[in-house]
TrEMBL record:
The record marks 377 as: Important for beta-aspartyl-AMP intermediate formation. The lineage of its organism: Bacteria, Pseudomonadati, Spirochaetota, Spirochaetia, Spirochaetales. Keywords: Amino-acid biosynthesis, Asparagine biosynthesis, ATP-binding, Glutamine amidotransferase, Ligase, Nucleotide-binding. This is asparagine synthase (glutamine-hydrolyzing). The active site is at 2 (for gatase activity). The keyword DNA damage does not apply. Residues 2-200 form the Glutamine amidotransferase type-2 domain. ATP binds at residues 261, 301, 375-376.
């Protein structure tokens, strides 16, 4: 995983850029690129052409010796700057055969011959990008045609921003900070989209479509359990297990030391257990050779005595990882807040709360020589793991909320996981968000994910309803790989699990630091997305010092919710109407006591 800055349309207005100005702009792009060097501390590269400049900061995970970027095609006409991992690059290479001469072992180089093939066969960029299995954002420049192609992965695991300066030059960058102060307009480049400059008035086009976006497409799919909660189709559960194991195995592609994040919750524990299963062999050799780093290291973070640390130790002992506990103090976390907000580029309360421990953890991971970690992000969005899903009124509402949550992952969990880790040059991989596994999980019948099952005919006379633990089908799929009390541990949101006192302190301190008078004038101080709470106001003050433009403020999501819900789900419970609290503890009657 890396970072890049691309500048295009240098000859805007039809006038060639003067040579001296091009040199100046090249230096300027390099300065912009330097702001994101934390994403790629291993190597820097730059390409300068007649109408484009591409600068790249590399974090070498695959092919450290020859995979320098920007990558150049075998004929020297196509230049590529990419950030991410293409997990199926070996299969793509085999399919391409001798039609293209690969110059490196980089997994990202396969994008170039796929582009060539696409140009020859009718410019179907959606089909081209669909062939990629991985997490990615890239900018490709075709110097022969003087056109560029920009694209981002389906979920938005990899960040990407776009902007325009006063001269009409178009920029893309891996982080907002590279564009702030340079562009008069800055936007997030939409996930699951591409932009092709070969069309007049080009703008991002969606390439990622799935049938499961509609409830009608999944409502009649086979269920794993009957109305009484008894497993009647075990093959459905087996498909979940096989799909996730395949995703984890594919994502162990690495030429550098890697580890796992282990909070002790269900999701990270499953990823750690599967990783341990395959960690003894080198995936690049089709598991025929011993792994270069055969001992798997796991990492947990929390306040002394936090729920996550206790559970993570138990899971690690069972799985057999070399486990590391990272303790932080509240003061250390508070001191880190400005740096955290600078790196994650958001003032969203949920994200700031959860990113701070992750940021502190990443620093320790980097110090131990680990350059890549696998984590459990995405599971709650796929299976309805957040506690508020217990209040979903029916399967249709449940599924539609999942679709909404999946569409917003790039604004929250993916942003946090990527930027908190990459602040220290550590790559995060997210097997739950593997493209094929997403299809498996989202095509499950929503009845199998519901936290309420009907007993008998569903009437109160015949038993009514029964509460079932969130993500039960995922727990069932992996119950033989984990300790029982880990497999069936209730959901703890990361910012809660690291220690409840962390959030409680943030609320108290921000209440003290932001006066009533300041908060009353919040709409004058922040006309774009006025803060809804004093905690958000406090983060917004820090953010505005680092990113003062209105464009930067608009790049941050601003939506009411409870326990990480979308605004729409607030309709599920009348008591939530005036709530705006992301902690899982906000869901009374569900947190901690649902399953006694």
């Amino acid at each position: 995983m890396c970072g890049f800055v691309g500048a295009f349309d240098l000859n805007s207005g039809g006038k060639p850029l003067a040579e001296g100005l091009r040199d100046e702009l090249r230096v300027h792009v390099l300065e912009m690129s330097k702001r994101i060097r934390h994403r790629g501390p291993d190597w820097s590269g730059v390409y300068t052409g007649e109408n484009a400049i591409l600068s790249h900061e590399r974090l070498s995970i695959v092919d450290p010796l020859s995979g320098k970027q920007p990558l150049v095609s075998d004929d020297g006409k196509i230049i590529l700057a990419a950030n991410g991992e293409i997990y199926n690059h070996k299969k793509i290479r085999e399919a391409i055969g001798d039609k293209y001469h690969f110059r490196t072992g980089s997994d990202c180089e396969v994008i170039i011959p796929l582009y060539k093939e696409c140009i020859q066969n009718g410019f179907d960029f959606s089909s081209m990008i669909e062939k990629l299995s991985g997490i990615f954002a890239f900018a490709l420049y075709d110097s022969e045609r003087d056109v560029y192609l920009v694209a981002r992965d389906e979920i938005g695991v990899i960040p990407l921003y776009q902007g325009w300066d006063k001269n009409g030059h178009y920029y893309v960058a891996s982080e907002l900070k590279a564009l702030e102060g340079e562009c008069v307009t800055i936007e997030e480049f939409p996930n699951g989209c591409y932009l092709w400059s070969g069309e007049k008035n080009s703008s991002p086009v969606k390439w990622y479509y799935r049938d499961w976006e509609s409830y009608e497409a999944v409502k009649n799919n086979q269920c794993a359990a009957d109305k009484k909660g008894r497993v009647i189709n075990p093959e459905v559960i087996e498909k979940v297990r096989n799909g996730l194991e395949s995703a984890v195995k594919a994502q162990l592609m690495s030429d550098v030391p890697y580890g796992v994040l282990l909070s002790g919750g269900l999701d990270s524990s499953i990823i750690a257990a599967i990783t341990q299963k395959y960690s003894k062999k080198r995936i690049e050799s089709d598991s025929k050779e011993s792994a270069w780093w055969p001992q798997l290291h796991s990492f947990a973070v929390g306040l002394e005595g936090s729920p996550d640390l206790v559970a993570a130790k138990k899971a690690a002992d069972y799985i057999g990882t070399v486990h590391h506990e990272v303790h932080f103090t509240i003061q250390e976390a508070l001191d880190a807040l400005p740096d955290v907000i600078y790196h994650i580029e958001t003032y969203d309360i949920t994200t700031v709360r959860a990113s701070t421990p992750m940021y502190l953890l990443a620093r320790v991971i980097k110090s131990m020589g680990i350059k890549m970690v696998l984590s459990g992000e995405g599971s709650d969005e796929l299976f309805g793991g957040y506690l508020y899903f217990h209040k979903a009124p029916n399967a249709e509402e449940f599924h539609e909320e999942l679709v909404r949550k999946m569409s917003k992952l790039h604004l929250y969990d993916c942003l946090r996981a990527n930027k908190s880790l990459m602040a220290w040059g550590v790559e995060g991989r997210v097997p739950f968000l593997d493209k094929d596994f997403i299809d498996i999980a989202m095509r499950l019948n929503p009845e199998d994910k519901m936290n309420i099952i009907l007993l008998s005919d569903g009437s109160e006379k015949n038993g009514g309803t029964h509460q079932r633990m969130e993500k039960w089908i995922l727990r069932k799929a992996f119950e033989d790989m984990l300790p029982e009390d880990i497999c069936w541990r209730q959901k703890e949101q990361f910012s809660d699990g690291v220690g409840y006192n962390w959030i409680d302190t943030l609320k108290r301190i921000t209440e003290e630091k932001v006066s009533d008078a300041e908060f009353a004038r919040r709409e004058n101080r922040f006309p774009v997305n006025p803060p809804k709470t004093k905690e958000e106001y406090y983060y917004r003050e820090i953010y505005s010092r680092l990113f003062p433009s209105d464009s930067a403020a608009k790049c941050v999501p601003h939506e009411a919710g409870v326990a990480c819900s979308t605004a729409k789900a607030l309709e599920w419970d009348a008591a939530w109407k005036n709530m705006d609290e992301p902690s899982g503890r906000a869901i009374n009657g569900v947190h901690n006591d649902s399953y006694k």
